[in-house]
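I am writing to request your help with a piece of structural work I have in hand. The matter concerns a single protein, recorded as an amino acid sequence and a row of backbone structure tokens. Could you please explain, in whatever detail you think fit, how the structure tokens follow from the sequence? Thank you for your consideration; the sequence and its tokens are set out here:
>
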Amino acid sequence: MVYGIRLMLINLCLMTLGGIINSIKDIFFPVNCLNCAKEGDFVCSECLETLDLSGVFCCPVCHRKTLMGDYCEVCQPLFIDNQCSVIKYDEKALIGEIIHLFKYQYVEDLSKTIEKMLKIFLDKQKLPDFDFITFVPLHGRRYVERGFNQSEKIANLLSGLSQKPVVDSLKRNRYTNPQAKFNRQERLQNLDDAFDFIYKRDDLKDKNILLVDDVFTTGSTMQECAKILKMNNLGKVIGFSLARG
């Protein structure tokens, strides 16, 4: 009983302290909208409404639009079964700035904006059925450099909205050069044997899984991850990204 009261008081103190810290941040480090500079949020409600969050559903190989992000009639299916994104990527537009600040500077408060974007998308679109969520892993060296995995952050936000659990199923076993430096064939070679399956339980067998990344460009990284998942007896792999390049 006494222990429970103490724990409750500690939690109350932490919540109060957190509120005080946030108030101090708001006073001395006010946040302005990345788009219109209005004070209050990194993306104000008016600017959020300007983003097209109706989703991008395209063939994972050729980027031709398809109904549910499945393969077109021309392309040979690989390892991802479907691929969908929340918004089309534009480096010079607001979405480009959101992803850049979140990915490379980890502006934590942008998590709230991304969560709103995901919710708007999920309210508009029905995804293929899935049982679990996983994410594209970072190599340990890059994780230390960055301090977090942006894809894991997005996966956790999706978990809260969908009520589906996140599993840490993949490991990047070697350091690879950034994919942006390569053409499609070089990207495939760069990622060859770069991932391992590390999930030890058998409850993923034949289950459908949502594989999360921040940006889908050529799809090389996601296809390689999906290949490893399929080799370990998972069902469908649905690729999901915040943006589609």
Remarks:
- The chain is about 40% helix and 15% strand.
